[in-house]
Amino acid sequence: MALTQERRREVFAALVAAQDAGLNVAASRKRVAEEHGLTAKQVEKIENEGLDAQWPPLDV
Q1: Where are the alpha helices (DSSP H) in 1-60?
Q2: Is 60 within the bounds of a domain?
Q3: Mean pLDDT of the region 43-52
C-alpha cells in the first residue's frame, strides 16, 4: 500500500527532528523506520522526496 503524501510528510518531519536532536543520518533513518513501521529504504526515499520538495520544516 502506498503512503499518502500527508503520511510521507509526517515521516519526513520526524526524520528532520531526529537529526536536529543529534542523531546521524543512518541512526535517524533506522529510528524513524522502526517508529513508523517502514523500511530504511522507504524512509530514505521519503527523505529524498522531502528534500527535493522542501517540505516543512525545511520551508521555514
Answers
A1: 5-20, 25-36, 40-53
A2: no
A3: 97
